[in-house]
Amino acid sequence: MEKLNIADKEFSSRLFLGTGKFGSIAEMEAAVLASETEMVTIALKRIDAETETDTLTSCFKPHHINLLPNTSGARNAKEAIFAAQLAREAMETNWLKLEIHPDPKYLMPDALETLRATEELAKMGFIILPYIHADPVLCKQLENAGTAAVMPLGAPIGTNKGLKTIDFLEIIIEQSKVPVIVDAGIGAPSDAAKAMEIGADAVLVNTAIASSKDPVQMALAFKLAVTSGRIAFLAGTGASRNQAEASSPLTAFLNL
Amino acid sequence: MFTEQFNKYSWEIIKQSILNKTAHDVRMALQKEKRDLEDFKALISPAAAPHLEEMAVISQKLTQKRFGKTIQMYIPLYLSNECQNICTYCAFSLDNKIRRKTLSDAEILEEVRMIKKMGYDHVLLVTGEANQTVGVEYLKKAIRLIKPYFSNVSLEVQPLDTTDYTELIEEGLNTVLVYQETYHQENYKFYHPKGKKSNFNYRLETPDRLGKAEIHKIGLGTLIGLEDWRTDCFFTALHLNYLEKNYWQTKYSVSFPRLRPIELAGTEQTVLKDYDNYMNDRELVQLICAWRLFNTELEISISTREEERFRNHLVKLGITSMSAGSKTNPGGYAVEQGSLEQFEISDERSAEEVAEMIKKQGYEPVWKDWDKTLGAKLC
């Protein structure tokens, strides 16, 4: 399968994983390995920057899995920029999953502050992957601001509700010049496959794997679903039709 | 302010409406995906008792989906037992003739050293209400002192004004716990006959003032044992709904401490106070599950007031944070281990032992889930 390029990096896997909500670090590590992902996102707030051997970050090093620090908890651009700088230092990467959610209940991303932060952070040399609503206009604006990819949500984060925003995702995918990674809401491998079938470049999954009874098997299922969805997209899925084709087309008389 | 909404309700009518909930109401509440206050009433009503297992299954599922298999760890640090209030259920009450103690800077740091050794990164500062000695200035200084050692600092002290909260937030305060104790306005006076705390409305409006100060998290709750717990919990839920609408950028947690025996001075043994409105273990589990079904995103914490075996089982039922290895007396960790505690804890295991218990159940104890940089005031 062809590789995915984001900024200066090349990925063989189009599945990214979140590292929260697992019952133990060992369980998380096993799921990550089973998924064959090449990039995981880690919340800065969970990292103990003062201890050099932070178990959350150090367990990925031997496997050469890229770390994508996220700014979960930031309520505005200022906080996110500050957190980004610390994350860059703590995790030794200029890649950043930009999350700004002033609403701690549903963790809805703030479009205005995210755009503002993207402009600033791009100037500072960050590779930014912003978590956003499935808002096609915002995606174009982020592109102009220098984002490396966009991460529109499929449904409210952590809900496992699937691709509720599919109509908007399709527009985003059609218009985007940067990779589109469907982020929140993917609840089942079939959702991930669907996202890939409509042309998403990658998906990010956390809750669906972490809250499964068997995270390792679920990670494997997601790996397969993402691969098969991508292959289906490349093969070209047959267009579905709403109307039946009339046996006597209205314009048939023209042929007479 | 919440007072305006609160005044529209009558305690007795609410209490009766909860008791009148039927098995049908409970079944309807269980079937829904989004539950409202009426559903909450049904779930905490006696009619829901036969459905406890079903509630527990849903509660566990919802909690795991939102919070994962994790338990947040925090520990209280009692800074002072000086208090100008009389609270009939509290060992720090003004009329209890105990030796009073307020930690000095050096003593605070000594306590901090012990707490850090236990692995904690989230500390809850607790004091009585003594504005001369442990007023806003003292608290500001204390937060400044301990901030370098903790990512997350919470506070459980007397209600303050909005401007005070703003100043404390600037020092790095993240969360304030302020329990109404009881929403029964008439009887509140009976439990709090003297001191600033006797002002029911000032306490009731504290979360409003915190919301206006843009605090990150507010902890709500009532003391279980004073009045009818069902009615008190309904009012807590009403309060929460109001706050979530008005201060939508703030996070919320609830707690429902069951009153514990307290030691009264002059006697050698612990006086076992009898509380009229006792809540049994089944009921507490029902309450935890009802809260989870009512509000999926809410944080629920359980302190060392509860017993070891019971706490072990709660890990999987809907709670999200736990304290362990706690001392409820100022200086209890290092400075003056024998000073009088606020209440006697039940679960006496060390933080390490409790963390081990959590891990054994396939859950991860989380010590750090916040960063100083978030919410830091930047110039």
Provide a brief overview of the structure.
The complex is a heterodimer of chains A (256) and B (379). By secondary structure, chain A is an alpha/beta fold.
Rg of chain B is 20 Å
Largest interface: A-B, 32 and 31 residues
Number of domains of chain B: 1
Instruction: Please give the largest β-sheet of chain B.
Output: 8 strands, parallel, barrel
Tell me the structural class of chain B: alpha/beta
What is the CA-CA span between the terminal residues of chain A?
49 Å
CATH architecture of chain A: Alpha-Beta Barrel
Largest sheet of chain A: 5 strands, parallel
- Level-1 CATH class name of chain A: Alpha Beta
Residue runs with pLDDT of under 50 for 5 or more positions of chain A: none
Mean pLDDT of chain A: 92
Total count of domains of chain A: 1
Silhouette of chain B = globular
Low-confidence stretches of chain B: none
Can you write the helix and strand succession of chain A as a string?
EEEHEHEHEHEHEHEHEHH
Helix residue percentage of chain B: 25-40%
Q: Which structural class do the helices and strands of chain A define? A: alpha/beta
Q: Figure out the total of helices of chain A.
A: 9
Task: Tell how many strands the DSSP assignment of chain A holds.
Answer: 10
Function (chain A): Catalyzes the rearrangement of 1-deoxy-D-xylulose 5-phosphate (DXP) to produce the thiazole phosphate moiety of thiamine. Sulfur is provided by the thiocarboxylate moiety of the carrier protein ThiS. In vitro, sulfur can be provided by H(2)S.
Catalytic activity (chain A): [ThiS sulfur-carrier protein]-C-terminal-Gly-aminoethanethioate + 2-iminoacetate + 1-deoxy-D-xylulose 5-phosphate = [ThiS sulfur-carrier protein]-C-terminal Gly-Gly + 2-[(2R,5Z)-2-carboxy-4-methylthiazol-5(2H)-ylidene]ethyl phosphate + 2 H2O + H(+)
Main location (chain A): cytoplasm
EC number (chain A): 2.8.1.10
